[in-house]
Amino acid sequence: KYAKGDLKGDAEISAIQQIVQLGLDREELRDEIYVQCVRQLTGNPNQEQIERLWLLLCLVVVAFPTGKTFFKYFVSFLQTNLTASGKSLQYVQWCMDNSNRAQAAPRKLPPSSVEIAAMKRLGTIVCRFFFLDGRTKAIDVHPCDTAQDSVSKLADKIGLQSLDGWALFESGPNRESHIQGHHYLYDIISSWEIEQNLATKTSQTKVSPAKNLTPKRPAGASDNRFIFKKRLFRNTREIPGDPVEVSLLFAQAVHSVVRCDDLPVSEKVALQLAGLQAQVALGEPQPDR
Known about the structure:
By secondary structure, this protein is α+β, with helices and mostly antiparallel strands. It has helices at residues 10-25, 30-41, 47-61, 68-80, 86-98, 113-120, 147-158, 185-205, 243-259, 267-282, and strands at 125-131, 136-141, 166-172, 175-179, 225-230. Strands 2-1-5-3-4 form a five-stranded mixed β-sheet, with helices on both faces.
């Protein structure tokens, strides 16, 4: 049904997610999913079906690898299709570029609707990362990018010299948690969408019978964000020589102590921090002022 185009909208997205989820859950089915895509693409005269199958194959390639035995046959199949034209050729090239993932760990979750939409236009997801000083940075995140990969990209973009201790966190309406370096960011995005869908279904089943009462809007994926901040502090008595890192650490200290009250401090330390904050905001004290 998916290949024939019988499924539209959410039904099409759900079918793609279910196919990928099967491969994630059952390793013995992974090569079978690849083989079915290859068989239906071989000699298929219907261009619309071809593009739908290549789309699925592109999403499968970045979700889990082929088996070692089938890998060389899959690469050979891709090489024979480099003569394709138009969008199909771009899909083939994507599979070629991302097929050599034999040593990479498979994803944990199927693609989100955002990832599927991005793949349809042969692009990646542009993610916005938040800093505790109020700034944000947007970078392209590849489906195979881990949290550590994104930390490196962010450091390059803002000019941060050392990555020691810096990490990504996911922040939602009721939580903030560290993202381990080997986790794929696309899995985090998928988990947000799954939570949103569950929250929407729950709210729909708990609609108040009173006509004038509107159910509370569930927290959605847009309520979640990636936050870049320091997680491990090794040399607590040394001030870094990198001005970018000093600025980020200062913003994190203000955020943790003043805004969130996460770190209880004595009155003396609070006064010292207030003085430092005033010095940063107003500049060095002048003798004539």
